[in-house]
Amino acid sequence: MAQRDEVIRRTVYVSDIDHQVTEEQLAALFINCGQVVDCRMCGDPNSVLRFAFIEFTDEESARAALNLSGTVLGYYPVRVLPSKTAIAPVNPTFLPRSDDEREMCARTIYCTNIDKKVSQADVKLFFESICGEVYRLRLLGDFHHSTRIAFVEFVMAESATAALNCSGVILGSLPIRVSPSKTPVRPRAPRQLMH
């Protein structure tokens, strides 16, 4: 139980998230607070707004994240509160909303603890040489933290399955952590032109 409480203290609850905002855009917002361990987007597909849980490696990062409450992401200001729960196993109703998205998810992995010195091309080459062709890759990071995170979408689902076996493999000078992505890497929505 003590361990669970400690996880809860490292986790924040984010509400009022615009449905166009992706899990990676959300992770990108909080990357300045500290290293994100897990980012879980949830919500009702029938509602305009969703919510999320973001777990950090330490409590200081979670406390820093609370200061981002009110930041506009998409079209709405998000609310950030201390979480009352740890990130639970995925509730099936929150998962991708269409067969296409489910299929994209099956082909996508979430990779953390990526060495800063490693470039996007390096990450792509690493996964392609071991797992198969990469369709899309987003590498997120900043100058404050020693590691970055990436969402990697492969052409084939088998490649994503193979990539899960790369957890612990050294890339640059650090062991990467690979987990299945819970949301597809959705193409960014085109920005509305201001008239």
From TrEMBL:
It comes from the Eukaryota. The keyword Nucleus applies. One of its GO terms (cellular component) is nucleus. Pfam families: RRM_1. Signal peptide: none annotated. Keywords: Nucleus, Repeat, RNA-binding. SMART domains: RRM. Its main location: nucleus. It is found in: Nucleus. The keyword Lyase does not apply. GO terms for molecular function: mRNA binding. Residues 10-85, 107-183 form the RRM domain. This is RRM domain-containing protein. It comes from Leersia perrieri.
